[in-house]
Amino acid sequence: MSTQSTNDQPHIAIVGGGICGPVLLLTLAKRGIPATLYERDDAIDARGHLGGMLDLDWETGQRALRENGLQDEFLKHARRDAEELKLGGKDGVVLFHHQGSKPSADVENLKNERPEIDRRVLRKLLYAALPQDSIKWGHALTSVKPLEGGQHELTFSNGLVTVADFLVGADGAHSRIRALLSPATPIYQGISGAEILLSPEVAALPENSDISNSVGKGSYFVTEDSKVMAFQRNGDGRIRAYVWMNKDIDWVLPSDPKEAKQLLLDSYADWAPWMRKFISLCDEEAMYPRPLFHLPVGHRWPHKAGVTIIGDAAHLMAPFAGAGANLAMVDALDLGLVLSEVVSKGLQGEEKEAAIAGWEEKMLARGEHWASITMLSAQGFFSPDAPHAVVAMFKQFMG
Ligand SMILES: Cc1cc2nc3c(=O)[nH]c(=O)nc-3n(C[C@H](O)[C@H](O)[C@H](O)COP(=O)(O)OP(=O)(O)OC[C@H]3O[C@@H](n4cnc5c(N)ncnc54)[C@H](O)[C@@H]3O)c2cc1C
């Protein structure tokens, strides 16, 4: 038993407080199982300006909130009208238009919807529901040492050393904990570019209504010539765009914002005027490189006692199917339910390992399914037949 165990409960350590970390802590806390969440950021808003919106699916992201009593809170913040989606090519002609739902639409309809919520708002909602003394901000894990009996010794950059009876890596794409289970490392997708944005104030100016009206209430994906501009309107009125191109791994976005802008303008020279205007006007203080990585499709590892990984740490994939955050949330819910049962029933030995290994297999099969869909979707976005290939794909997917 670890130095931090209380009341004979095992010390469950969750490393990473992005999306799946807080969902796991919440699921355990709601069922009376103590755990500790270690996050390297100093506070919830340390990188609050980053991250766009996430559309949550009924069976995965929404389920993780529903089964933890947060459906009403989600509905207060969800943007059902932001499900509006447009697709088209570089000339700005809309080839596919899916209207969002009315904010007041029947709750029953949620089963067939994917309401949007800003990542920042989702995390706030989750963290407000957590036991605050279980969250350790400013704890960057620097090393892990396996001990006897499935325990692990964790060392953090602030000097804390602690022992976990069960360790969960919720530490994202470049997980440190993954190496305890698998030699896999993230593979470059051959796609890089930038995240750029217009602040709410700039987006609202009357002279920028051409941009604002084109983007609409939700998302507009523009694809052609093996390039993508994926626009989205965030809840605070900000308009964000992911600008992606096929590039070698050594390609870098210039660190000087003016040079970066010019490079993007040159790359998108024959795209519609409002798209080029978006690049010209984008906030020079908020231009971020966005190379895309993924883990091998079907990533797996032999089950190991005392440690597992969830979310991007387990099945990192590019964002072309909108699956990553949804999977991270349902991984955390399902693991939380299994661990609650293991602890409350006092399962030990083979029974305990079989329960956790069974959940791991289910998670990895689901991850493999979505990683395959994501690969096909990425091919569509960058195919010579884009935007028509993408329109066909979305028509099939959205019925
Ligand atoms: C540009 C882009 C757009 C996306 N759009 C969508 C979308 O529309 N829909 C969707 O479903 N998904 C989307 N995703 C994917 C989604 O963001 C991820 O799948 C999701 O964030 C994974 O959650 P996570 O909790 O596993 O990891 P993360 O959210 O990355 O969280 C990991 C956390 O671990 C912490 N951490 C890392 N290392 C350490 C350490 N050593 N010690 C302590 N803490 C540590 C980090 O600070 C971070 O808070 C997108 C991804 C990208 C890159």
UniProtKB/TrEMBL annotation:
Highest taxon above the source species: Eukaryota
Keywords attached to this entry: FAD, Flavoprotein, Monooxygenase, Oxidoreductase
Keyword Zinc carried by entry: no
Stored InterPro entries: FAD-bd, FAD/NAD-bd_sf
Transmembrane segments: none
Keyword Ion transport listed: no
Gene3D superfamilies to which the protein is assigned, alphabetical: FAD/NAD(P)-binding domain (3.50.50.60)
Record-annotated FAD-binding domain positions: 12-344
GO molecular function terms attached to this record: FAD binding; monooxygenase activity
PANTHER family linked: FAD DEPENDENT OXIDOREDUCTASE DOMAIN-CONTAINING PROTEIN, MONOOXYGENASE ASQM-RELATED
Protein name: FAD-binding domain-containing protein
